[in-house]
Amino acid sequence: MRKYLLYLSLFSPLLAVAQHQIKGVFSPANAFKTTMLYHLSEGKTNYVAYGAVNPNGEMQIELEASAPAGMYRLVYALPQSENNFEFIYSGTESVLFNFKNETGVEFTNSKENQLLQSYHQLMANAQNEFVQLYTQPTLDTLNYKLRAQKIDSLQKAYERLSKGTLAAHFISATKPYIPSHIETVSEYISNLKTKYFEAIDFKDPVLQNSNFIIDKFLDYVFRMQFSEIPSLLDYQSNIDVVYKTLATTEPSYQLTTLNAFRELLETSGDAALAVYLTKTYVLPLARQQNDTELITTLETFMRIALGEKAPNFVLENPSETSNVSLYDLAGADSYLLIFWSSDCSHCLNELPEVHAYISSHPEKKITVVAIGIEKNPAQWSKTILPWSEFTHSIAKGKWTHEITKTYAIQSTPTYFVLDASKVITAKPYSLNDLKAVLDQK
């Protein structure tokens, strides 16, 4: 599920004069155990503190008196990327909140967060009322002007209320497009898209030291599509616009921001767009900046991304005399690569189930290539005996073997599903995920 968050950040460190708390109540209480607090600054996520959630759903974290004002993230479950919310710490008051699984976070103490939250709620309502006019058979010109004026008045009011706060930067940058005269549907849609980034100062340090801009990029790429069935080229075109908006910023900032954007696309399952962004913009920027570590990361991502052809390798099996490679295998409708180890308990539980599934579904024509990442070849040889339906290969040396580096294997078992042409079509995380993918074959 794609998740769009409001991202705020640090402008300049302000020394607090007193100790404050991050304090909240989670509901339902039994669904939460622990929280972790992070401070966001200059594109980095810095761990601050851990806070337990008691049986009543209550948690509290004491901040040091020197804790800087700015943007913080509270993680309340795993995976962290999906189970968190972000907020401003002003340095002058505690942040109190209630959090419910169904409705999210509501701030009960923290003027800047409450101000920002009310702004977004009221502005969303006002914009929805305005857009609804276009659904009517006849455009009501009087209501059109009144509702456009309402949006303008709300924006100006909140800009006044937030003046001098960190929230002000985000309220100003979120200013929506407001027509100056009555527009047709096509005119309004065109202007909504072309003027989408007009309110954002991409050189503003407050915005640059936050994830706000990345959030806006995600919204633009996926929401500023007005064709009935958007194509991949439509989304790629929006990514091109995103890149152009950063043209006036420093190359180092462009690289940091676009790489973070790439990571979000990857984790949200939009692999084709992540590959396009990497090939077209992120990798060239990384090479320009001579960021060797990132270059390696990006090249690894590209090598095993969904939609890419799986890297070839020779199947190493002491019982086989011929050097057969992955690309030499033929006749299957799909291929399943399993990276496992004979000393991995999860593997020893899951591989028999995979073997039973493959054995009972011959009509699916799935060839399984099981690559044992091993220190003990003798143990591997005994373990594979019951799995006659698999094509086996051993990677002696475990994590130092070239194949584990090529496929960026960090844990076992790891699954890759390929089509008949050896193109990667899925990377299931768990056995249940794998079965769901194979059921569709």
Structure description:
The chain is globular. The chain folds into three domains: 21-107, Transthyretin/hydroxyisourate hydrolase domain (Immunoglobulin-like); 113-303, no CATH class; 326-439, Glutaredoxin (3-Layer(aba) Sandwich). The protein has a five-stranded mixed sheet with strand order 11-10-9-12-13. It has a four-stranded mixed sheet with strand order 4-1-7-8. A four-stranded antiparallel sheet has the order 3-2-5-6, with no helix packed on it. The chain has 14 helices and 13 strands. The protein has helices spanning 111-132, 141-161, 166-173, 185-194, 205-208, 212-223, 232-245, 251-267, 271-288, 292-303, 345-360, 377-383, 402-406, 431-439; strands at residues 21-27, 34-41, 44-52, 58-62, 70-75, 84-89, 95-100, 104-109, 334-340, 366-374, 391-396, 414-419, 424-426. It has 441 residues and is of the alpha+beta class. The relative contact order is 0.07.
Number of helices: 14
The value of Rg in angstroms is 26 Å
Gap between N and C termini, in Å?
A: 23 Å
Low-pLDDT parts are: 1-17
Number of domains: 3
The helical percent reads 25-40%
| Largest sheet descriptor | 5 strands, mixed
Strand order of the largest sheet: 11-10-9-12-13
Order of helix and strand elements from N to C terminus = EEEEEEEEHHHHHHHHHHEHEHEHEEH
Average predicted local confidence, pLDDT: 92
Overall shape: it is globular
Number of E strands:
13
